[in-house]
Amino acid sequence: MTPNEISYSHILPEVVLSVFGMLIMLAEPMLGERASRKPLGYLAFFGTLAAGAATLYQAQYPGFAFWHMVHVDAFSTFFHLLVIGVAAVVILSSLDYVEEETVHAGEYYGLVLLGAVGMCLMSSAVELVLIFVALEISSIATYVLTGIRRKNAAGAESALKYFLLGSFATAFFLFGVAMMYGATGSTDIPNIALTLAKGSIPGLVYVGMALMFVGLGFKIASAPFHVWTPDVYEGAPAPIVGFMSTAPKAAVFAVMLRIILQTGAPGWLYLIWGSAALSMTLGNLGALLQTNVKRMLAYSSIAQAGYILVAFTAAPQEATSAVMFYMLCYAAMNVGAFAVITFYSGKDERRVHLEDFAGLGATNPLLALTLTIFLLSLIGIPLTGGFLAKFYVFQVALKANMVWLTIIGVLNSAVAAYYYLRLVVAMYMKPAPEGAVRVAAPLPMKIALLAAAALTLYLGIVPTGVLSYTTEAAAQLLTAPAVKVVTGQ
Amino acid sequence: MPENYYIRYLPLVLHLVAALLIALPVLVLTTLIGRRKKFAQKMQAYECGITPTGDTRGRFSVKFYLVGMLFILFDVEAVFLYPWAIILKELKMFGFWEMLVYIGVVLVGFFYIVKKGAIDWGETARVSVENV
Amino acid sequence: MELVLFWVFAAICIGGAINLLAQKHPINSALSLVVVMASLAVEYLLLGAEFVAAVQVIIYAGAIMVLFIFVIMLLNAGEEPHGGKTSLVAKLVGLPALGILAVMLVWALTAQAGGSVAVAGAEPGPPQVIARLLFNDFLLPFEVTSVLVLIAIMGAVVLAAPLQPHHAAKILAAQAGEGGQS
Questions:
Q1: Does a structural domain hold residue A1?
Q2: Does residue C98 lie within any of the structural domains?
Q3: Last residue of a domain, one of C79, C102, C123
Q4: pLDDT surpassing 90 at residue A341
Q5: Residue C119 domain-assigned?
Q6: Of A18, A29, A150, which is closest to B112 when you measure between CB atoms?
Q7: Measured between CB atoms, which of C137, C145, C148 is closest to A67?
Q8: Domains of chain B, with CATH numbers?
């Protein structure tokens, strides 16, 4: 397999997702206006399964393809499966939700699938132009999904805010790419690594890295680029918050790992240090004040992004491995928590306040139990994935002598326990309000919840398999060969 | 860059200069020597002699926006055709297939908007919620 | 001569951008944006990027500006009331940050000019060069753009298309229900 050719196996999951997305686009207007869109939802779910299978098939053929545009390795396979898995869980958990809440249920599934194309591509792309196009795909899909509830004023407001600030951030990223190209003469990540390793580092590289970090930092909602998060998460549909707080973030973290660690570009350490400390502190302090559960989880996701950024300060290989493991745990628990909210919030998402969750343990034990698991994992209680992930991150940070950052992180984890536990207490210790009825979750929702909860517990109890995989993937990422021949001229 | 690169655009510069030479003096001279008298009839919008009613700037339907948006998307698609057409002979069948895939994907979108009635301007089918 | 033209159009471009921000009426701002876009096209042309210049005129100065005007007419946006309070944070943090960014850029770009880096394929050339790159090396980003177009099409329909009659009825019923309850 030479790198300079078309190889469908290297983009197979993306092709599968695009084809299913297009099938949904073709089928949507063909269905009767009043027909249920659930069949499209199942088609989309089947599409994610097929894409997952395609990823596993693709993993057998590692290497470059498309003139050094994509590189398939254990690293890209991991993030492909993560994104596709999140998409599958989100689709399952929103089958009933979208039917009720939006008149564009068909487009909803199409946008989730096509957005996932961009996120998958971000994790395997090794070329800044392709990364930019993929980032745009994933961003624009999430902007639209945010505003898909047209009858909801808060939804429209949050979509507008997200879109305006998001485009601004993407422009920063693109500006950074231009600076990087000016400094190194290439937009190919392995090539940039070669140029940087060879000689003195031009000042433009620092500017380029800083600008790219601004753009990517916005997408992962790390402070000080986090201001949009609470409003957007509050206004966006609950399952979409689950989606956009995990899958695009995972993809952006993959891009950050590639850009920062694979190129070996200097100067990013202080940026990340500051951003991590700020994100953890502002996120957790902000969450303390919230009574709306969606807003609380929005602040919590800012804090969680901070913990992941802490991992970046460690030695490259350990950093990569820790980020991957944390991201997987975070995806499982966050997408699960939002699946519970999706179901429980009810029509027009009226029940999203803390007091609405009172007595959930009695009225709906399954929802309460799974939500408790996700919240305990978000705190970092032993036997859950969140505990090991945090432990791992702080351990590798300490190894790299990031003592102060680790102290800030641990203090923050203790603060965070308060607001997560407040929700658990409300569910189990407070009486249910008058007239609370027990509604059984439909089967697809149960499957989604149990899958997320099982993964959260699995990662907390027997993490060795996943950990050895992430270590191997990290090693592959950092030893990727770097050759590129421009054939265009 | 080829040697005669800038010379090739000389007509464009001359065009610009000519436009400025005609437009600027006209603007400057009218403001300098023209007399200005303002009265109600003169300030009215010209409606072929009929007294205008209401504001000239009415609100437009959101449909115009949708058409504008879709126009840009297909405009972007068309822009890719220019460089493709230049080197089509070099690319041979390979070029044909790669553009076929691209156009095919975008055609799915076209099918979608037509079927969805997004560019349907008939009175019969659609009601706009924006009006209620 | 080229250099003179470059600076002249750079000045027009920046002047247009400043005017864009200073104007009170959105239509005037939009017209200033046309000036910015057109002078950028000339800059591209002066740098030898003919294709990019043409695309700049077709897409930005043409299509995108039409959309801008549409939106302004859609909203029937009039003159903006001025004299709103500027946020203190914006003044205290934003302006110094802007200054730092400007200094960084100037420093980095002037430092770069001395130690030149050999840039592969950086010489801007006729459209053929771009075409060869686009349809070989950058084939994948090009094809992926089609997915981006699909998402944008769906987005336009989801957010802006008039709703079907029964959907509109559904929303009206929901709003009526809300009004009755509150």
A1: no
A2: no
A3: C79
A4: yes
A5: no
A6: A29
A7: C137
A8: 5-124 (1.20.58.1610)
Q: What is the 3-state secondary structure (H, E, C) of C118-131?
A: CCCCCCCCCHHHHH
pLDDT tens-place string over residues B25-35: 999 998 888 87
In a domain, A489, yes or no: no
Total-model pTM:
0.91
CATH number at C42 reads: 1.20.120.1200
C113 within a domain of the structure (yes/no): no
The answer to whether the beta carbons of residues A291 and A235 sit under 8 Å apart is no
CA C98 to chain centre: 19
- CA-based nearest distance A183→chain C, Å: 7
Residue A117 to chain B, least CA–CA distance (Å): 14
Q: Based on the structure, what is the number of domains in chain A?
A: 1
**Residue A2 falls inside a structural domain:** no
Q: For A412-470, what is each residue's pLDDT tens digit?
A: 999 999 999 999 999 999 888 776 777 788 999 999 999 999 999 999 999 999 999 99
Contact A113, A26 (CB under 8 A): no
Provide the ipTM: 0.92
Which backbone phi and psi does B25 adopt, to 5 degrees? -60, -40
pLDDT at residue A99 tops 60: yes
Residues of the domain holding C179: 139-182
Q: How many domains does chain C have?
A: 2
Tokens matching residue C123: 């010489």
pLDDT 10s digits, A16-38? 999 999 999 999 999 887 788 99
C170 and A CB contact within 8 Å: yes
> Of C29, C45, C79, which residue constitutes the final position of a domain?
C79
Q: Which residue of chain A comes nearest to B94, CA vs CA?
A: A6
Residues 16-55 of C with CB under 8 A from A: none
- Contact present, A137 and A247 (Cβ < 8 Å): no
**N-term to C-term CA, chain C:** 71
- Does the residue A483 lie in any domain? no
Q: Is the peptide bond before A13 cis (omega within 30 degrees of 0)?
A: no
In a domain, C14, yes or no: yes
CB C79 within 8 A of CB C24: yes
Digit-coded pLDDT (tens) for A25-72: 999 999 887 788 999 999 999 999 999 999 999 999 888 888 889 999
CB atoms within 10 A of CB C181: 6
pLDDT averaged over every residue in chain A: 91
Cβ contacts of B71 on chain C, cutoff 8 Å: 63, 66
**Chain A contact present for C64, CB below 8 A:** no
Band of residue C179 on the pLDDT scale cut at 50, 70, 90 = very low
